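During the no-cost extension, the postdoctoral fellow (Dr. R.K.) reprocessed legacy sequence entries with the updated structure-token encoder. One reprocessed record is reproduced below for audit purposes.
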Amino acid sequence: MEHVYDLIIIGGGPAGISASIFAARQKLDFLVISKNFGGLANFIPDIETYLGYHYVSGYELVKKFKEHV
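Re-encoded structure tokens follow.
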């Protein structure tokens, strides 16, 4: 039997994580396809002016994403 999702999210970077949080809030049946959680943000040493942060490392930002999810 084939499973039909309401939403399929391609990518586990910041946009994919945000999309999955909103999908969960709407109680959608969704699937996230990604090689890793956080995407390329994991490998960025310094991120300046990300929404809600003046300065954060990519590793710390992904850690915050995991806490939120």
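The chain has a mean pLDDT of 91. Strands lie at 7-10, 30-33, 47-48, 55-56. The remaining legacy entries will be reprocessed before the final report is submitted.
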